[in-house]
Design goal:
homodimer; alpha/beta; six-stranded parallel sheet; six-stranded mixed sheet; 13 helices; 14% strand; disordered N terminus; disordered C terminus; DNA-binding
Chain lengths: 390, 390
DNA sequence: GTTCGCAACTAAATCGATTTACCACAGGGC
DNA sequence: GCCCTGTGGTAAATCGATTTAGTTGCGAAC
């Protein structure tokens, strides 16, 4: 739709506008100084004394030549990069991508970009990327589920972190409310024997959430049995970890009718383990996940889960950081912003069975030698469950 | 672990090293010229005449003061930004995130960073972001499932695009092989009546893949029945679209025993629709997905799917682009790089039932009143055709 | 005692924009 | 005639590094 209009100006009829024009070149073409162009193009107050006619000449020429100021030069001069750094543990796990998506929406709208680096929870990589981002003159950092040490000498907004750090604004979920929502839901359905899968030790939310769960359990008069607590181990973003944890819970031989998992991904793995052991979800065991990632609604069964407003958290992080930058370094800033979870009830929870489930049988079976690729039986065994419960 | 060691030098005992040191400052401190420091620090050949003692002095001071060259200044001078731009349709849908992850791995290793922008298939946004990235002096672009026009005046690597464009290297899956893998698998299991869900019209792979499917069907002597072909519509990354498409297929009243879906996400939605209509997967209907996103292995049932090596494609894109940059603009470059799919057999496919499934019952049930946002009947004509063909 | 060559540096230009400080000229008031 | 105030600009410094083109001083060669 935009035809070449190079013929208008003989001088550039040969040169396609592939090389950007500099201010100086444009100024030369107009027989004016770069200063004048700069003043007019930036609508600076000092341009008030320049007559409209000249302004028009400049503006027209700029459009004609497709002049765009060199971002690097401008940044160097202004000592601003209009760029933020984002540190995430892993890009491809759904969680970070969702947060990033919220960050991006807000930043691009405000004329900022961001540089991402994923560190896989490796402390050395975190430090190295922080330096690299600092060198690239990012104006601030957003740390998603990433530990921040002191002395980062940049404004930081941390998502899902809970330590107080100088210069860091924490954005965190109200985990008390989250735990209460999930447990109240289960209790209302008649569940009393509830199993838990805790997060990995390196995960920022693990401890806070676990404390919240215990507090909520106390309030609800629920017993948290040590043998009904498993913990995710390992760094993979796959449901495998939840699968392993759920096998442990089954193997412990302590009956339970519901599971509160650390996240949706591990809940999915757990459901898989339950099915293999001939328990149906939700008829035999109810499962509550956490996060509400995209696929949660389309699992089989669709997951009941505690929704974290991840996208909103990303957006809030971006907003907050930009606000802090605008305010300047000296200014005060919020230390903590709390966002609210929601309970999304789908079909992985249902009223508790009245007959107690005993799963000691599984402990004999032991763990399968290879969880290998994805090979494992699953729905075929489900129907067998009732029969084998002799 | 790193204590303050400011006391070593009286001059900066008060100033914490929060402000970066410039070359000039460092030079002043050493009573040398910035030139000398630059030569030594960059290990330039011209530094050969500088005695080792001086070099050591410089290197020591640089370390001591934590000198890091200003990236913006250096970029401006060298006319290189060591930054690429990446255009994706959507960050949070699993596909792009996986590709990005591969891109990132390679780029960060090579000292590059990248700026991402997601455009949601909006042509104006694509153009706007392209300009912004260009202005930021990215050295090249990686376009993931994003249409590239001519005249982008930057080296481009396009993932999953199929048009030949000046300056663009395409990275594409071998769709012929992909289609063959999937259909051969189904045929081997005894399926002859196979339904298809095509991709959205705006999706780059849709047409190429569909052509490949038809070719493969021809070779395998399979009939592609128009009433067993549905198409995804709408821009959402949720399985909802697949759900809608599958309902249409069921409503068409034409029996089938297998479905080849455009991607895993839509396959999951389709399975949901089948389950709701009381068909079990894979006993009644086998389903093959596409992509092999993370969650595919942990769906219920785990999805049989054609794996695209997304991470590898991202890596290949980054590699190729960097190679092209190193070679210079004049040099020739590959127009097309093809990567190979794999068939991952899990549990959403099984031998075809011998008794023919008739699903006309569903057509009475009709579509649910609200499919909310994406509500559209699309094949209403198709359904009507059945009834009216009495 | 020039001159050449080399060691050890440095001044200044450059990248491209912004910004401060200044200049030249016109017109009006005293 | 002199001063003052606008107009309508421009020259030059600046951001921080890189790079080209020198400079200085000294010992050796002729």
């Amino acid at each position: 739709m935009s035809r070449k209009k190079t013929s208008r100006n003989g001088r550039r009829s040969k040169t396609l506008p592939n090389r950007p024009v500099s201010l100086k070149e444009l100024a030369g073409h107009l027989d004016l100084s770069p200063t004048s162009l700069s003043l007019v193009l930036n609508d600076s107050p000092a341009a008030s004394s320049i007559p409209q006619e000249t302004k028009d000449r400049i503006l027209t020429a700029a459009r004609e030549f497709g002049y765009r100021p060199n971002f690097l030069a401008r940044s160097l001069r202004a000592q601003r990069s209009y760029t933020l750094g984002v540190l995430v543990p892993e890009l491809s796990d759904g969680y970070s991508a969702m947060v990033l998506s919220g960050i991006e929406d807000h930043l691009l709208e405000k004329g900022y970009f961001y540089l991402v680096a994923s560190h896989r929870h490796d402390a050395d990589l975190i430090e190295q990327y922080r330096r690299l981002l600092f060198e690239r003159r990012v104006e601030g950092l957003i740390a998603v589920d990433t530990p921040c040490e002191e002395g980062w000498s940049l404004p930081v907004v941390a998502i899902s972190r809970h330590e107080e750090r100088e210069g860091v604004t924490n954005i965190a979920l109200d985990h008390d409310r989250a735990a209460t929502l999930a447990l109240e839901h289960l209790v209302e359905l008649g569940h009393r024997r509830i199993a838990f899968i805790k997060g990995q030790v390196f995960s920022s939310d693990t401890e806070v959430r676990w404390q919240a769960v215990r507090d909520a359990a106390l309030r609800l008069d629920l017993l948290v049995r040590p043998r009904l607590v498993a913990q995710l181990e390992g760094n993979s973003p796959s449901p495998e970890l939840g699968y392993v944890a759920a096998r442990e819970l089954l193997a412990a031989g302590e009956p339970f009718t519901a599971l509160f998992a650390f996240n949706d991904v591990s809940a999915v793995g757990a459901i898989r383990a339950f099915n293999e052991a001939s328990y149906r979800v939700p008829e035999d065991i109810s499962v509550v996940g956490f996060d509400d990632v995209y696929s949660a609604a389309y699992q089989n069964p669709p997951l009941t889960t505690v929704k974290q407003p991840l996208r909103q958290m990303g957006k809030l992080a971006a907003e907050t950081l930009l606000r802090r930058l605008a305010a300047g370094t000296g200014e005060s800033y919020p230390k903590l912003l709390t966002v609210m979870p929601d309970l999304i009830v789908r079909q992985s929870t249902s009223p508790a069975r009245t007959d107690v489930i005993c799963n000691s049988s599984i402990s004999q079976a032991g763990l399968p030698p290879e969880l290998s690729k994805q090979k494992m039986i699953h729905s075929s065994t489900r129907r067998a469950s009732l029969e084998s419960a002799d």
